[in-house]
Amino acid sequence: MNSALNELEHVSLGVMAQVLLHTGALPLQVWRSAGQINRALGTAPRHAWIVRRWLAALTRAGALGEDAGRLAWQGTPPTAAIDNLPGLYAELGFPASMAPLHSQVIECLPDLLRDQLALTPLLLQSGDLVAVLGAYQHNRFTAAINQALAARASEVRAHGDVLRVLELGGGAACTTHAVLATLQAHEKDYRFTDISALFTGAAQRQFRLEPGMHFALLDLDRGFAEQGIEARSQDLVIAGNVLHNARDLPQSLGQIRACLRDGGSLLFSESIADNPAMLTFMHLLLSPPADAPLRDTDEAFIPPDAWRQVLQAQGFQLLEVWPTATDPLAVAGQRLFHAVGVSS
Hints:
about 350 residues, 2 domains, 10 strands, about 40% helix, transferase, methyltransferase
């Protein structure tokens, strides 16, 4: 699997190089700043961070050299063997639909970056949006993270007779499925939430017969109390690959801590570094809407030590980060975090 991950990264770096060269954003033997490259490409302001992350990835790989804030190609730029995507995605355990969908997005990248085309309608052409967005979470690495999260969820003890669980940003319910399978012996009050009615509606259809399930809209960037989540009411909060969407992470973690009882658990999964493949694919969905403020930082994902600090500042103690750096699963850059609320 490691070789497939490395090859997928190489293909993705080649895709980035192909776009920059073919659009004339960064020709051979020309030095340009990130701002000049984005202007030459015609990148929409909300997507400019994506291109800057491309440039950082290409620089780390040695494809670009930097001098006084300007960048130029070093040697022969990487090439994109897009025909290899089906085999690579299959080896990594993704559904068969992922490779052709990624290939389609790659063909449209310049228009997507210029906002001449939107990613969501493009994804809708491939079928049900919930299924499409869930497909990229169906892989060996994310499945292992979800199973580990579910195992730890089953060990959380209720403060009363009923285990009170809040899931944030439930999305396509990949994490939900794993957790519910381990909570069958528990009497539970499980609130599945998401910012989109598309996902809460789909979850309600999937889990309508599951005892103790509730479904509601919830915005990470607004106060939880005003959205019906009482203070110190939850035994367990779950967030599968969603907290990076918070506009103000400390504020959102503060809201989570406020709704969690002392000693209650926060279990969440996150990527801890850029994923070159997703930077040419699903990470376009992380750009803010055209009428919203631009991103404060190009860093969409933060490392474990930074998580430890921000969690501690909001009243949490980080107990575990899994897998460890030496675990073979760690190469995918995904981690499970287990924190508990401590009394102030």
